[in-house]
Amino acid sequence: MINNGNSLYSWRDKLSYFLGIKKASRKEMPDFIIAGLPKCGTVWMVRVLRSDKQFQYFENPFFKNKGEIRFFSRNFNQSISKYFRAFKTKQRDLTKLAYEKSPDYSTISRTRIRLIKKLNPDVKIILVFRHPADRAFSNAKMDLVRNRGIAVKPENEHFFINHYKSQGRKYDYKKILSNWFSVFDESQILVLSLEDIGEKPVKVLEKVYEFLGRKVNINHDLYENPNATVSKPMPASHLKYLNSYIGDIIDYWDNNQSLFRIN
């Protein structure tokens, strides 16, 4: 159960915390985590919160110039003591709320989610979603267009289809919510959407501040999403494929807007 397809070596210094034998202190853990999803506006959220002195953002202690910590995902083989030291620094101010952002936490296993809860039972989690097809296309553009220089052209469509096949079903919204809500109380999880960030950023931020129990301090100059790019709409053939491949996820999004959108 604990292995989850990963080397047990990765759990060598974490098992005692998972079993409750050891405890982490608040100084060693974030107060809240922006856990994703990728391409859903989490960069914008960090940009806004970093402008507010009520919060303290912490970056990757494992590799230089990597930004996101991703300890409970791709860096799980790293020592937990190093994760603790990322927060337990001379710069840590306990009057502020400490946080990290790792978008791929959204799809980690329930076992790793339980580990987060064991380490800090009071931690709060922010999950941000968007229309599944739009999220998949944006993710593919980041990996293929921005990182590999593969343009969105008919002759390159197979690259995008292969990307959708490798990533599309990984982001099963129903499963993601089920995993997180099976471990954490509803009061500890805030679900938002990129659509609301674009349409009503003030309401989104008010929701975030209320969730975190802090006084609203909004910087109106930071509304524009710094990670957004102006681009051509998704090709019809891509949308047709995604409607077929992740149709159930799209249906879940369409039929449960009250879960994702602010009234």
Structural features, described:
The chain has about 260 residues and is of the alpha/beta class. It has a single domain (about 10-260), classed as P-loop containing nucleotide triphosphate hydrolases (Rossmann fold, 3-Layer(aba) Sandwich), CATH 3.40.50.300. The protein has helices at about 15-20, 40-50, 80-85, 110-120, 130-150, 155-165, 175-180, 195-200, 200-210, 235-245, 245-255, 255-260, and strands spanning about 30-35, 55, 95-100, 125-130, 190-195. The N and C termini lie far apart (about 40 Å).
List the defining traits of the structure above.
alpha/beta, disordered N terminus, 263 residues, five-stranded parallel beta sheet, Rossmann fold, 12 helices
The CATH homologous superfamily is termed P-loop containing nucleotide triphosphate hydrolases
Would you tell me the structural class of the helices and strands?
alpha/beta
> Can you count the helices?
12
- The CATH top-level class label: Alpha Beta
Distance between the termini: 39 Å
Q: Globular, elongated, flat, extended or rod-shaped: what is the shape?
A: globular
- Radius of gyration (CA) equals 19 Å
Binned, the helix content reads 40-55%
Tell me the domain tally: 1
- Sheet with most strands: strand arrangement: 2-3-1-4-5
- The CATH topology name reads Rossmann fold
- Spell out the helices and strands N to C: HEHEHEHEHHHEHHHHH
Average of pLDDT: 91
Question: What is the total tally of β strands?
Answer: 5
Q: Tell me about the largest β-sheet.
A: 5 strands, parallel
CATH architecture: 3-Layer(aba) Sandwich
Q: Low-confidence spans: pLDDT under 50, at least 5 residues?
A: 1-5
Strand composition percent: 5-15%
